[in-house]
Amino acid sequence: MTFRPPLRIGPVRRFTRNLLCPLDLLGRPLLLKYTRDPAEAREEIRGHAHLARRYHVPALHAHLRVPGGYLLAYERLPGGTDQGLLLDLLNADELSGDLHTYMDQLTAAYGEVILTTAWSADPAHVVRKLYWDRAAPGGRLDTYYAGKDFLIADGLIDIPVTRLDTYALNINGRRHRLGWAATLRWLRTHFATAEPVWAALTQGDPTDVNLAHPLAWFDYDTAGMNSVPGEFANFLWYASALGGWLVPTYNPTAFADHPATFAHVPANTPKVRRADVDHSTIHIDYAPRLSTPRRAAVTAYWNQLVRPVADRLWPGEDLANLLRPYLAMRILGVYNLADLAPEDRLVLLARLAEAMSPAFNPTSYFCPLESPCPAP
Questions:
Q1: Per-residue pLDDT for 374 more than 70?
Q2: Largest distance between two CA atoms of the chain
Q3: In this predicted model, what pLDDT tens digit does every residue of 272-284 receive, in sequence order?
Q4: What band does 40 get if pLDDT is binned at 50, 70 and 90?
């Protein structure tokens, strides 16, 4: 007879400001989450309760105020090294039937709930953490950029970002303009208006580490009534830029249990081919890269969720205008661009200029040129 200790504790992992620790208590698999911010913990508890009404989420067995924060005890779903997340399906070398099935399930679940719960809401009644709060006075836009300047790309384009508006941009053969200060002002103004937004019950931060395989949802501090375009922009940007490139590059500890991620970073990292200044024009040529599984996930999400929902909620409206402010906030409000390597910063500024362009086309924007999304 094999003796099993009544308590077994696994390794502690750090995710942003939170700590996660798996443990087995009397044979029951649990996941402990320690959150330092009591307000954030209360938001997570409320968000979990909201989401549990419509989505498959692990049970929250207990929550306890402890010195320095909150401790939450969740049901621990099956998983392991390179197992248990959408991330692991995206880290495959080839496209799999499992990913197709998963994206069918994900888009069907989101589509049903979004169309059932969507309403035109006052922004005051929408989860504000990822967009409105970051654009508000004292939020991330101010913390990162207010009164500060930095070079567009040290050693490549040694021009201060605040002087971008004095140059034309030639990005992959197309002309653009980008006013740095004007863009920041526009975002602050956009997210300060009281104009209603279409909101629905969603998780709010649908990243490939917050989506379990088999399908379930993790991380609930942004769960609730979220802006639908914000939800879409979040998944599309994370799947096509953050998850396979920037997050493993700048926050590698988040992938300690999913090391296969790192082998796929080169396949998801854009390549700068040209960066120089010719009189009053800045030339930037870069090759977008996205692995086959990530392209497939983005394409399925766009065709099976974004377009059908848009046809119902915004018939005849331009999706580019709806997505633009949220996409710009994801580009600027996750990482401080000044802290990134010059080539990464240069690509993100180019991507920002493309998103802010009147010619912005989300269908082609989120899929690399070498493997375009199917025509709508």
A1: no
A2: 80
A3: 999 999 989 999 9
A4: confident
Helix or strand or coil: residue 284? strand
* Cα angle: 361, vertex 362, 364; to 5 degrees: 75
Q: Which CATH number does 86-365 carry? A: 3.90.1200
Tokens of residue 135, six digits = 């654009």
For 7-75, which CATH superfamily applies? Phosphorylase Kinase; domain 1 (3.30.200.20)
* pLDDT tens-digit map of 147-202: 999 999 999 999 999 999 999 999 999 999 999 999 999 999 999 999 999 999 99
Task: Give CA 364 to chain center in angstroms.
Answer: 18
Cα–Cα distance for residue pair 351/374, rounded to 1 Å: 21
What token pair was written down for 240? 């096509």
From 257, 253, 229, select the one nearest 318 (Cα to Cα).
Answer: 229
Question: Is 153 in contact with 345 (CB distance < 8 Å)?
Answer: yes
Polymer length of the chain: 376
Task: Please report, as a single letter, which amino acid is at residue 91.
Answer: N
**Closest by Cα among 4, 70, 85 to 32:** 70
DSSP string of 43-58, one letter each residue: HHHHHHHHHHTTS---
